[in-house]
Amino acid sequence: MKRTGLILALCAGIQVNAQTVSKVTDPVEWVNPLMGTDSKGSLSNGNTYPAIAVPWGMNFWMPQTNTIGNGWAYQYTADKIRGFKQTHQPSPWINDYGQFAIMPVTENLKFNQDDRASWYSHKAEVAKPYYYSVYLADADVTTEITPTERAAQFRFTFPRTDSAFVVVDAFDRGSYIKVIPAENKIIGYTTRNSGGVPENFKNYFVIYFEKPFTVAKTFNGNQLVKDTLEYKAGHVGAVVGFKTGKGEKVNLKVASSFISFEQAELNLQRELGKDGFDITRQKAKDSWNKELSRIQPEGGSVDQTRTFYSCLYRVLLFPRKFYEFDAQNKIMHYSPYNGKVLPGYMFTDNGFWDTFRAVFPFFNMMYPELNSHIMEGLANAYKESGWLPEWASPGHRDCMIGSNSASLIADAYLKGVRGFDINTLYEAILKNTENEGPLTSVGRKGVKYYNELGYIPYDVDINENAARTLEYAYDDFTIYKLAIALKRPQAEIDRFAKRSQNYRNLLDPETKLMRGKNKDGKFQAPFNPFKWGDAFTEGNSWHYTWSVFHDVQGLATLMGGREMFAKMLDSVFTMPPIYDESYYRSVIHEIREMQIGNMGQYAHGNQPIQHMIYLYNYAGQPWKAQYWVRQVMNKLYHAGPDGYCGDEDNGQTSAWYVFSAMGFYPVCPGTDQYVLGAPLFPKLTLTLENGKKFVIDAAGNSATNIYTQNILLNGKPLTKNWIAHEDIQKGGNMRLTMGATPETIRGTKEDAFPYSYSTSKK
Description:
39 strands, globular, Alpha-1,2-mannosidase, putative
């Protein structure tokens, strides 16, 4: 493995042979939080930032390279850091809320975000999930950060100077600051947000310094304020200063709350107490290793192992905990829906249009207790706002389509997750199916057309109408399955079973593709299947045609049968990456990412098509799924700053990789099946929440041996193209023999195919 591999082995506590990783004992050291950070509005390689956090933490921290309000707050190509920001941003497109920044400076009392900015280099930057360090060249200061769920510790190493300062910027759009020198303390709040908050929204913060202040100032905008250490205005902050010796370390403890200053103090004492920086860092590291160690890959390359754990880290960040503990250790939350402080769980910062596909199925498999809490949070969101969230940050945001909360709720309940108010959630689901919401992202836009005609017409001024129809039909399938489990009236069950087939109304027999349809029943004309947007959402017909997760055989039949279905799947990869961007009037980044990916019309950088490769299992050609899954993993992912092929999106694009590395994928949440691909690693062990282990042993797996020859599940032949959720939860092993050539007999008959509504028992 040469010297580089030896260093990695020593640092991460692994055994390495011939550039393969045989054992990972310290998985967090394999994570690169900078994966995906080399992004911009016109081209996303992930659109991520280095989230310095603990799993699902209420607060994240990040180095801020861009100006206040810029969604691309950290860009890998930037030269300067303007501050270290507490962030709650789920994506640059949604932007941030509850944010403020801390920044050390020296020599002159500089507090403006441009004046205080310092040059830095990645050569002097250490980014880990539990720890961040960087040398700020202009200030000659090293900054270190380590997090808890609602607090963090900073450590600044200053030069010898009588002009060492720390700036606390509460940001614009309404803020408050107060310096309390007698307590070495600063308190404040920020109201800056990008939407989705009640009028009384504030993020209250408290900061303790271990060193007394010799200078204490407040500022308002670009001006220092005279004769007061307390100020409230549009954009305020504070600067405190002291003399330092060479190499002197100044420690800060910071915590925040969405409830009150008193609660922020409580959060600080509860999570930091008397712990020093190094103790907090070790606790944060331990929290990551606890979760990351639940999945143990063996025998992969260094790059594969790094990419796997870097993706798993992203899956474990969102949705964030939006609840706090009171003095009696009871759970409560500030409601981002009605502004009240209420008991119970709340989670936020998630777009279900993305994450229903793989993130939440992953939680149901690996973290059912967590998902129970998330479901209870959904019930609270409904009680507090009257609607289920579909894109929350922190409250309802008008973004994306569908009513995919139904998929989350149904999949959780059907896979045995309990401990939440399913009756309230089912009531909320039913409300969605009959009503439009106050925002287009909640309820169902176009619901009257959908319920009466079986589709949303192209010519009634409702954008993305075909995409909405397809997603509503799938969501209705999940409601149908949930209604059966809840023993609802037969008429109700039948209603959703019928609506689940509404996808049929948009399959054009001439092109064998999904196509917008006018109110009079005629298909839209002209029709360009390469046109992005319009009837579809961030994709074209070649991407959305496959959004019939629950009835793939029904879709195949409409296309003319299994052989034609397989040819249509093949065409996605063999066509050139041509596109029509006229609906958007410019080439949006998703189009560009498909174009440069060099996989034809396959646009893995956006979610609608991510399950499509696995559909070869329904066509009797599972070896093609095995081939293309490996191609995507090899070509479109790596653990570097440009390591994704599009928006990472709250763990979804990462969850695809994590599942695919295991060798299967949840094509249809709401069923108990994971559709097979082929494992990435020779061995991978899952430690389930119930304490049992499920081992995936792929003998002979390699860069060339990518095809499954045969499979044994607990010693018995597995002839299906899927594995059941229950089989994994019971523990055991799945042994696969791998080879360099496709095995073209196994999995080719219909009795091996995964669930489809049309051909399976209802």
